[in-house]
Amino acid sequence: MRLPHSLWQSIYKVIEYIMGRDNIYSQDHEALEAFAFDDAVARVFPDMIKRSVPGYTMIIPMIGVITDQYAQANTHLYDLGCSLGASLLAMRHGVNVDGCKIIGIDNAEAMLKRCQSYVDIDDATVPVELHKGDVTEFEYNNASVVTLNFTLQFIPLEKRQALIQKLYDGLQPGGALILSEKICFDEPEQTLQQELHWDFKRANGYSDLEVSQKRSALENVLVPESAQAHIERLKSVGFSQACTWYQCFNFTSFIAVK
Ligand code: GEK
After folding, report:
1. What pLDDT score does 235 carry?
2. Which residue's alpha carbon is at the smallest distance from atom 10 of ligand 1?
3. Burial, 76: exposed, middle or buried (Cβ in 10 Å; 0-12, 13-18, 19+)?
4. Which domains does the chain have, with CATH numbers?
5. What's the predicted TM-score (pTM) here?
6. Residue 39 CA to ligand 1 centre (angstroms)
7. pLDDT (tens digit, 9 = 90+) per residue, 189-209?
8. What is residue 12's predicted lDDT score, i.e. its pLDDT?
9. Which of 74, 86, 109, 218 could be disulfide-bonded to 99 (CB atoms 3.0-4.6 Å)?
10. Taking a C-beta distance cutoff of 8 angstroms, is the pair 157, 181 a contact?
11. Which helix (H) or strand (E) holds 216?
12. Cα(201)–Cα(248) distance, integer angstroms
């Protein structure tokens, strides 16, 4: 007996749902709402970020390597915009000194709930605290590693300088800030890098409709800056060194050392 085509389609839909496949923008949305980190996004987030952000799967383990290098004994390690905890757990496994505490902050309840469940089943022993709230409103102190892995891009432009200054002030000498961001360029490089990014998404199975609807939903929510603007800001708050350690198309990661 052959199963009817429509039944196969239903079965595939169920499988995709169970696997957490991101198909949020696969149907035509007449009125697109601004992108939000809600329950629907949290459910498919690992698939979404892996298929949308070139280099994400390389950056996560390297955050562990950088933590290994910069974590200082008896200090705090912060992960701002920790989402489901990928960067936070990489930091946790990278720590090789005693007396550290990792503090993860995110303002999305749906993300943080899932993050806690991953922390609970993780086998590393460094203590982790998770806090719900806006990263611009926390105080930071006695830090040796701070990670902003694709989070600053969602903070209003006018609040970025004060946040980076606060993070610098809260770091110990020799401490490091890891800052990963989508970046923009002057033309003609902007078009070249952006088209490569869209091709990356298509190669990962997103349709043209999904690419364009996601782009519209992120407009004014994710606001990229140039690499130069980031480096200048990092230097302006006092970091003695600030440089790019990774780039793939229009996604990059900087390291800044106090
Ligand atoms: C990872 N670091 O997997 N305060 C707190 N959290 C915020 C704020 C804010 N003002 N704005 C956005 N967020 C993660 C990936 S995702 C990146 C980080 C992406 C949170 C938001 O809820 C989301 O969880 C995270 O920042 C950004 O390594 O989706 O492109």
Report:
1. 98
2. 134
3. buried
4. 5-185+219-257 (3.40.50.150)
5. 0.93
6. 14
7. 999 999 999 999 999 887 778
8. 67
9. 74
10. no
11. helix 208-218
12. 13
All residue ranges of the chain with pLDDT < 50 are: none
What does the alpha-carbon distance between residue 52 and residue 141 come to, in Å, rounded to a whole number? 33
Tell which residue, 146, 156, 83, has the closest CA to residue 117.
Answer: 83
In DSSP notation, 218-243 reads: HTTTS--EEHHHHHHHHHHHT-SEEE
Q: What is the pLDDT of residue 40?
A: 82
Please give the pLDDT value at position 219: 82
Answer whether 129's CB lies under 8 Å from 102's CB: yes
> What atom in ligand 1 is closest to the CA of residue 59?
28
Residues 6+ apart with CB under 8 A from 194: 250
Place of tokens 């698939």: 47
| CB of 106 sitting under 6 A from ligand 1 | yes
Ligand 1 within 6 A of CB of 48 = no
Least Cα distance to 222 among 158, 178, 157 occurs for 157
CB of 105 within 6 A of ligand 1: the answer is yes
Query: Is the bond into 188 cis (omega within 30 degrees of 0)?
Result: yes
